[in-house]
Amino acid sequence: MPPQTTAPATEPAETPTTTPATEPTETPATARATGGTAPTTARHPDASAPTTAPHPDASAPTTAPAATPGPGAPASAPAARRLPRNPYLRLFTVPGTRAFTAGNLVARVPMGMFTVSAVIMIAGSRGSYALAGAVTATGLAATAVVAPFTARLIDRYGQARVAVPATVLAVLGSLALLLCVRYGAPDWTLFAAYAATATTPNIGGMSRARWAHLYRSDPRAAHTANAFEQAVDELCFMTGPVLAAFLCAALFPEAGTLIGAVMLLAGMLLFTAQRATEPPVAPRTAGLRARSPLRRAGMPALLSVFLATGAIFGSMEIVTLAYVEGPWAGPVMALQAFGSFLAGLVYGSARPAADARRRLLVCLAGMTVLMSMPLLAASAAGSLPALAGALLLAGMATAPTMVTGMSLVQRLTPAGQLNEGMTLAVTALLGGISAGAAGGGWLVERAGAATAYVLPVAAGAAALCLAAAGVRARRAVA
């Protein structure tokens, strides 16, 4: 929830050499863009390249056979011409990337299924949406507490060693919830069972950590990979709830939870089986405890921006559900995610920002402006097609903002703690979504759904102000 040095492609295989590697040294700007963790002359490994020596130091002689340069390494002219022109297709030229992405997709779709499935299952059995909402809110709170610790264990011991048992515990929690609902167990058991699902690893964070490791010496490819992951997030957000609602209605009320649990475990097993692309565990010095990424300069300010951004999403969702009501609420909400999905694909094809903090300010300013469009559509036009179009446009600011923000998180987080750093960002988002949903519901009851669309605009403005304050603070320190 990813460095071997290869011989030049034009060198005869098995020709020994005593000259040091001649790749250009990584510049400070490139080091910052990749988290500053890549060795100055290391290139990305081709997982399929044969080698006759252990992992070499850049200055050591090599006797390795000729191999195809990795994605972060300079390639010869013929090899470069063979690479796909599409930046997204180039991501998958590294062996193992397609397999771990397939597992990631299978495991990530249930992330959008579980909440909807639990609400349908509990409300249908107990006749109380209040109980269903309280149970899911408890699970969200437990996840916010447990997820960073799970991510820290993943960074320390490796994705495969921790993610699989953590996923098994979460799946058992989902199955326990299903059985408690099915057989009429006391209400408190529902809270306990759903809280157990908090051990679910952040599959999106683990996937981003693999991309960051694979393309640590190629900032542009890393930018494209972050955009791809954000597009996948939006795709799962669109399909997960729809799939859950369909399964619960077409089969039986517990079907969404059951099939989601099976998909989560199967996807995680496939994902973690791809050991060649797994980031190595960072070595630790005996007696020294790694500092939390939360204590890194600039991280608290950035997490506050994620918190405010989450409030945008949470308030927009609850206000839209209250405004639309009925069967069209889901499809209309999906338009916002679809807009973000399209914008993410386009944004990933662009060059990464030279100044990511300034780019984040621009993205947040655009998000604040675009979030005002649903407010105008609901207040002035008052028609569902107008609101649907406004949500589609509003969603187009989401992916660029999230991609830029996650890139900053990666730069601020040490390479050996990437999972923890990105999970902290996700935790901040979850906290903001929860607060935004609560605030949106409160405002809907007191001012009406149309007026309540002012809350996402206010949250966007708050995120922009927090980001600007963080930039000014860092400049003052510098």
From TrEMBL:
Residues 1-80 have a biased composition (Low complexity). The chain crosses the membrane at residues 105-123, 129-150, 162-185, 297-316, 328-348, 360-381, 387-409, 421-444, 450-471. InterPro entries: MFS, MFS_trans_sf. The lineage of its organism: Bacteria, Bacillati, Actinomycetota, Actinomycetes, Kitasatosporales. SUPFAM superfamilies: MFS general substrate transporter. GO terms for molecular function: transmembrane transporter activity. This is Major Facilitator Superfamily protein. Residues 1-81 are annotated as: Disordered. Keywords: Membrane, Transmembrane, Transmembrane helix.
